[in-house]
Design brief:
The complex is a heterodimer. In chain A, 44% of the residues lie in helices and 14% in strands. By secondary structure, chain A is α+β, with helices and mostly antiparallel strands. Chain A has two domains: 32-157 and 319-390, D-Maltodextrin-Binding Protein, domain 2; 159-317 and 395-436, D-Maltodextrin-Binding Protein, domain 2, CATH 3.40.190.10. In chain A, the strands form five sheets. Chain A has a five-stranded mixed β-sheet with strand order 2-1-3-14-7. In chain A, strands 5-4-6 form a three-stranded antiparallel β-sheet, covered by helices on one side. Chain A has a three-stranded antiparallel β-sheet with strand order 11-8-12. In chain A, a hairpin with a 4-residue loop joins strand 4 (135-137) and strand 5 (142-143). By secondary structure, chain B is mostly helical. Chain B has a domain at 81-260: MetI-like (MetI-like fold, Orthogonal Bundle). In chain B, strands 1-2 form a two-stranded antiparallel sheet. In chain B, helix 1 (8-45) packs across helix 12 (272-307) and helix 7 (167-192) crosses helix 9. The chains are: A alpha+beta, B mainly alpha. At the A-B interface, helix 4, helix 11 and helix 16 of A face helix 11 of B.
Chain lengths: 447, 308
């Protein structure tokens, strides 16, 4: 081959290569990948996924709007969310955010205030906002019902009490009103290893969630007054100590024996196989506990309002999901996303959602088709607990707070340190973190 | 036809450019994927990254992250302690079991060797997520197969994954089960490459199999053993999936390991600066381990050469 020919051949090959690369870059660019009429949703592979999908199918059928769901395991949600909202162009028009990550998304300024998309939009009467967590007040750095509306609840997960009505009947017990009543009931039912009197989650991953209602109902708190922006640490109070001692007592005296390592899947197994007589778990667990293919206690497992503390105060903790619309997606997509969310919040839609296995986000469903149906008997307990549910660490440093507190609580539960040392240690570290982050705080008083 | 004289300089220059050209893609890829991320990590370890109004704000904080890492971050240091215990226990057991199995398989018949190799290698091909699920089913407190067996034998049940006294050792057992085949594979390859004439000659001097193993096989296998040991040590410092799937680092800090701490700080807590400082320190730790292993292997080789 002559030099000229080789040169031509090389130029042609290079030209083809460049053309191919350009085409590949164009085809894989977000602008091409995104169909204008498609709503892209990031959603967790949680028990409520199928019910959400059934609503999406219905909406698609009714309106012709297409959906693209990115179903992701819970552990991978935060990474995908961060990658998308921090990019120049977002990959999702709706992101489902768990209660734990809400403050980070709100405070980071990644979400479009919903009133900017539609000035007439607000959460309808009857929709739960779980301690004001749909709104964010940037000046107070906290959730605030008077703040900017940034989220729409998509699944109402709160902690509730599960108990076995058949065992209660046999032993002549009443639904516990206080934690002391619960302990007394559990002592009567505790017969290990055949039956455990009471179970709750105690791993580092989940102990904070299960301990929070005990703390709140005993009059304790994590921070002085989050609603006014005062995040002075108050966890190590006498009420906090009493709450932690109650929590440890319940798990040690009438628990499964491995409280510090008990996580959600195992707890649901204990309840569904009848090995646990009662326990605290998220309302979403009802789907598994009432499923005859997964549970032998479908007809006898009941739900109730979590017991009150010594002062008669009931409390629960919010572990719900909120949908947010990122700033970095086209305006047309934001409008289409909000239109879908408005439809999602309607009462009829929520009835269909519940019938499909989801946990509703409205508290006014008692006059609907669900009311008389025994399959939805959990709605009452859910509504009661949702009414008294609070966020445990409602600030953008929440995830770090959770890790610090959880480790100390877990160590106290397994007996590595005392309850007093756990609370003092957690409070000291929380105070250090928040002070370093620029919060003006009153230092915690040691127990 | 007149023969043109060969221009040696031209050939040399062409060879030089050929060498540069052929190596360049590999060097560029290596620089982009390995060296640049480490420099980026070093830069981030001296920074604090915050997100304000949807944009990243990177503040230079000097050595503050390292100061905090050395004076606080107790969980990370608990992880360092556990990782060292884990690496020593797991790798020692893997080396003993792996090498013993390789010796046994080498002596087996051809068919027996194929069957045994296939069976022994099985754990290494199972995906980590399956291993996690499988061992949770085996070691679970209330529904685990091991405890069911103990119950059947009227022995007390043990909380393998939930009791701080047993949790780390349970993870070690799973790791030994998972990675012994790796040691087996490498040492078997080493054994099969040994010169059989040496063994024939040694028959005159050794009295039994034990002496053959001690005075012939192990000395000849030492380079392979040391390289396998170094490989496994380095890999065991990277342990993550087994801990993540079996215990989640708990109870307390009983099974916290370095990579678990980095994952929590970097990804869950989104503390990029501190996560980078932890990562950098770990990289240097593992690099030091590689240097030590290399030095030992080289020294042994030199000693061997000198003896020869």
């Amino acid at each position: 081959m002559s030099e000229k020919k080789i040169g031509r051949y090389t130029r042609r090959t290079l030209g083809r290569l460049l053309a191919g690369l350009s085409l590949a870059a164009y085809l894989t660019s977000p602008a091409f990948a995104q169909d204008a009429g498609t709503i892209r949703v990031l959603i967790s592979q949680s028990p409520w996924l199928n019910s959400f999908v059934s609503l999406v199918d219905q909406y698609q059928k009714d309106t012709g709007t297409k959906f693209q769901l990115d179903v992701t395991p819970f552990g991978g949600m935060v990474d995908k969310m961060r990658n998308s909202v921090r990019a120049q162009q977002g990959s999702y028009d709706i992101i489902n955010i768990n209660a734990q990550g809400l403050a980070e998304m709100y405070a980071g300024g990644f979400l479009r205030p919903l009133k900017e998309i539609d000035s007439s939009f607000s959460l309808p009467e009857g929709v739960l906002d779980f301690g004001g967590s749909a709104h964010w007040n940037a000046s107070k750095n906290s959730f605030d019902p008077k703040g900017e509306l940034l989220g729409v609840p998509t699944n109402g997960n709160v902690l509730v009490l599960y108990y076995r009505s058949d065992l209660y009947k046999q032993a002549g017990l009443k639904v516990p009103q206080t934690w002391d009543d619960l302990l007394a009931n559990a002592k009567k039912l505790h017969n290990p290893p055949k039956t455990y009197g009471f179970v709750s989650r105690g791993t580092r991953e989940s102990i904070l969630f299960d301990f929070s209602p005990v703390l709140f109902s005993h009059g304790g708190s994590f921070f002085a007054d989050p609603e006014t922006g005062d995040f002075s640490v108050t966890l190590n109070s006498p009420q906090g100590l009493q709450a932690l001692e109650t929590f440890i007592k319940l798990n040690k005296e009438v628990g499964a024996g491995n409280a510090g390592a008990l996580e959600q899947a195992e707890l649901i197994q204990l309840l569904s196989t009848g090995k646990a007589a009662q326990g605290t778990a998220v309302i979403a667990a009802v789907a598994d506990l009432q499923d005859p293919n997964k549970s032998i206690v479908t007809d006898t497992i009941e739900t109730a309002l979590l017991p009150a503390g010594p002062g008669g105060k009931h409390a629960s903790v919010a572990g719900h999901w909120m949908a947010g619309i990122p700033k970095n997606v086209p305006e047309a997509n934001q409008k289409a996303a909000l239109k879908f969310l408005k439809w999602f919040l309607q009462k009829d839609t929520q009835v269909a959602y519940t019938q499909a296995g989801g946990i509703p986000i409205r508290k006014d469903l008692s006059d609907t088709a669900l009311a008389g149906d025994p399959a939805y008997r959990f709605i009452k307990a859910f509504s009661e607990n949702a009414d008294v549910a609070k966020m445990n660490t409602p600030l953008k440093e929440g995830v770090r707070m959770k890790e610090v507190i959880s480790l100390y609580l877990n160590r106290a539960l397994i007996g590595e340190i005392s309850a007093k040392d756990a609370l003092n240690g957690a409070a000291t570290e929380m105070n250090q973190i928040l002070t370093a982050a620029g919060y003006k705080l009153t230092p915690p008083k040691m127990l | 036809m007149a023969i043109r004289p060969i221009d040696a300089t031209k050939i040399e220059r062409a060879n030089f450019w050929w060498r540069v050209g052929s190596l360049a893609p590999a060097i560029i890829v290596l620089a982009l994927l390995s060296i640049w991320p480490v420099f980026n990590l070093a830069y981030l370890s001296l920074s604090d990254v915050k997100w304000v109004s949807g944009s990243a704000v990177v503040d230079f904080v000097g050595l503050r992250n390292f100061h905090e890492l050395f004076t606080g971050e107790e969980v990370y240091w608990a992880g360092v302690r556990n990782t060292i215990i884990f690496a020593i226990c797991a790798v020692t057991l893997q080396m003993i079991f792996g090498f013993t199995m390789a010796l046994a398989v080498r002596r087996a018949s051809k068919i027996g060797r194929s069957v045994l190799t296939a069976v022994v290698l099985l754990p290494i091909v199972i995906p980590p997520i399956v291993i996690g699920a499988m061992w949770r089913l085996l070691l679970g407190r209330d529904f685990g197969i091991v405890n069911s067996l103990l119950s059947y034998l009227s022995l007390p049940q043990v909380d393998w994954l939930g009791d701080p006294r047993f949790a780390l050792m349970s993870v070690v057992v799973v790791d030994v089960w998972h990675w012994t085949p790796f040691v087996f594979l490498l040492t078997l390859a080493g054994l099969e490459s040994l010169d059989q004439e040496v063994f024939e000659a040694a028959k005159l001097d050794v009295k039994n199999r034990w002496q053959e193993l001690r005075y012939v096989t192990i000395p000849l296998m030492m380079p392979t053993i040391l390289i396998t040991l170094a490989f496994r040590m380095i890999l065991s410092f990277k342990v993550f999936d087994e801990v993540f799937l079996l215990t989640g680092g708990g109870p307390g800090t009983a099974t916290e390991v370095i990579n678990f701490s980095i994952n929590r700080v970097f990804f869950a807590q989104d503390r990029v600066g501190m996560g980078s400082a932890m990562s950098l320190l770990t990289i240097f730790g593992v690099a030091a381990l590689i240097v030590v292993a290399n030095t030992v292997v080289r020294r042994r080789r030199k000693q061997k050469d000198a003896a020869a």
